[in-house]
């Protein structure tokens, strides 16, 4: 009970000093608060990016094989839809589609062409993504119609200038998405009649896309008639290894092994998770610089506090306080300042993440919470021990006589 009362007394003494110096207390904790805020927010954004990519793949179903250029991760396209080729890789064409169609175990084949472009409606113009696909892509990407219909195989074969517009893009161009139906949009001097408006998916890229028959893009959007990637849908995951082997064998007749990658969705997700593990470590290291600066700030303030309270320390020593009592007092103040800053940092970061979640799947995980409590505590002890030791070693007589 005596020990417990001692800790309670230390906390009350620290709080009393904080109340006397409110501005200094807030400014001292500000450095730790900014550091924790930076680390937690960076972790949340990194986790959000990982969640976003996993959501993209999961929405396509489990029985999926992706044929990507090069390693599938290099070049400007990365592992997403947007690249038109990669360093050391190839761009696919219809000849490859015809080759892969001979594999009997494949349920459907989806070529992917994607390009960022200015999409012009009746009176407005917005940036969006033009996706050249076939009719099977709607099933692959779980794109359903809110209004109208999808384009068909006949539209693909005839290169009809029709399109399905994403819900958000329709909203931006026409106000009410239903008003987009039957209207014409223009991309690179090509005009496309809108035959369908897709349901909102909550995916910024998909909701802001204009889906068109891939052969229609051959005019001005994709004059090289190349695909960035080809996706293969199969009926059962039991035949995944068989289909992969057959796809590789078919493509090796035309390309070298290093020119393309045939990968399962699970393999790609595992690789992405490894990459994001490294990215998170780098983000934490960057954010920790702010925490280090905050720790130095605490040490400077605590040194100044020791100087200001030299006489008080001398009086306490004179009436029986030990060096250990003084050391504990100043360490407690340093620790409480750090924890206070950590809690504020976590609170503001959580509020920021809550706001970001309306358009991006950022989230605060257990690691971020631990960082906001453990790291500030460690910093408070580490940077507080030096001024606390200085205070504890002051001679009682000299401290009382200090002016």
TrEMBL record:
<feature type="transmembrane region" description="Helical">
    <location>
        <begin position="335"/>
        <end position="360"/>
    </location>
</feature>
<feature type="domain" description="ABC3 transporter permease C-terminal">
    <location>
        <begin position="285"/>
        <end position="396"/>
    </location>
</feature>
<protein>
    <recommendedName>
        <fullName>ABC transporter, permease protein</fullName>
    </recommendedName>
</protein>
<dbReference type="Pfam" id="PF02687">
    <property type="entry name" value="FtsX"/>
</dbReference>
<keyword id="KW-0812">Transmembrane</keyword>
<keyword id="KW-0472">Membrane</keyword>
<keyword id="KW-1133">Transmembrane helix</keyword>
<dbReference type="InterPro" id="IPR025857">
    <property type="entry name" value="MacB_PCD"/>
</dbReference>
<dbReference type="InterPro" id="IPR050250">
    <property type="entry name" value="Macrolide_Exporter_MacB"/>
</dbReference>
<dbReference type="InterPro" id="IPR003838">
    <property type="entry name" value="ABC3_permease_C"/>
</dbReference>
<comment type="similarity">
    <text>Belongs to the ABC-4 integral membrane protein family.</text>
</comment>
<keyword id="KW-1003">Cell membrane</keyword>
<dbReference type="GO" id="GO:0005886">
    <property type="term" value="C:plasma membrane"/>
</dbReference>
<feature type="domain" description="MacB-like periplasmic core">
    <location>
        <begin position="25"/>
        <end position="249"/>
    </location>
</feature>
<dbReference type="GO" id="GO:0022857">
    <property type="term" value="F:transmembrane transporter activity"/>
</dbReference>
<feature type="transmembrane region" description="Helical">
    <location>
        <begin position="275"/>
        <end position="303"/>
    </location>
</feature>
<feature type="transmembrane region" description="Helical">
    <location>
        <begin position="366"/>
        <end position="386"/>
    </location>
</feature>
<dbReference type="Pfam" id="PF12704">
    <property type="entry name" value="MacB_PCD"/>
</dbReference>
<feature type="transmembrane region" description="Helical">
    <location>
        <begin position="26"/>
        <end position="49"/>
    </location>
</feature>
